[in-house]
Write a structure and sequence with these properties.
alpha/beta; Rossmann fold; 7 helices; 5 strands
Amino acid sequence: MLHRVLELPSSVLADTGSVSTDDSSDEKPSMSLRLLLVEDVRVNIIVATTMLRSLGHEVDIAENGLIALEKLRQNDYDLVFMDCQMPELDGYQCTLQLRDPNSGVRNPKIPIIAMTAHAMVGDREKCLQSGMDDYITKPIDHEQIVAAISHWFGRQSEFQHMKHQGTQFPAS
């Protein structure tokens, strides 16, 4: 299965930075959020976007911090999932810049959730010190994503409903 994902043509990523997925059969939440995924690794983009869209959310993609800042200046988002290690401008510096009220972003107080492979002592604190609001580790899983969104948007009842309906989540 992973081999098939890696062979996806570049047309999978549309001009808007969206990944095409067909999740019409999935149960959608009552509230759809507009999310910005800031990530540079193609496989992570596909996995995260598929998970977020399966929950009924609209997802835009920025492949580095510079692109993220531009998208945040031009568009309104409800939440940002931010990778920490990226080329051009990493997640830490991007967050520091967008938190500046003079940065030109539409909402410098937007919730930012770090998504990082770094799970060592002090990494969470480094994310929080840069201005990020929350932290999840890679590889990401469905349960982490749902719990993070639930925390920031009061959607814990949806998470419980999904578990009650027998939705299978990968082991953390």
